[in-house]
Specification:
Elements: E1 19-25, E2 28-34, E3 42-44, H1 46-60, E4 67-70, E5 73-76, H2 80-90, E6 98-103, E7 106-110
Antiparallel strand pairs: 1-2, 2-3, 4-5, 6-7
Helix pairs in contact: 1-2
Length: about 110
């Protein structure tokens, strides 16, 4: 299927060709086209915008999970909804994650490099 951003997109205000670029929000790289003449005229790629909105929806959720004892370690289950979202973003996800302290009462899990 062809991507809408593969075509020439004209500014609705001045009719000039819009230029491709990127905008970063919360670690997401969103594809945009913008008119250099009409500086306020930007269009975000619909697929990128949908993925960003899905992330915002997940971010607002509060997941309560159990801390379990497994062998000599403790385990925390990660909800499937989160793992599915990460897999979709990364396309390839390793089974290994990086775990580190952010501060005394906060841990961080990193799924990417």
């Amino acid at each position: 299927m062809a991507d809408i951003f593969d075509n020439v997109i004209l500014c609705k205000d001045c009719g000039k060709k819009m230029e491709k670029g990127f905008v970063e929000r919360d670690g997401f790289k969103l594809r945009v086209v913008e008119c250099k003449k009409c500086s306020n005229n930007k269009v975000v790629h619909p697929q990128d915008l949908q993925e960003y909105q899905d992330f915002q929806h997940l971010k607002k959720k509060d997941f309560r999970v159990k801390l379990r004892f497994v062998g000599n370690s403790y385990a925390v289950s990660i909800p499937r909804e989160i793992v599915d979202f990460i897999k979709e973003q990364e396309k390839v996800m390793d089974d290994m994650v990086r775990l580190c302290f952010d501060d005394a009462k906060r841990l961080s899990l990193n799924f990417g490099n």
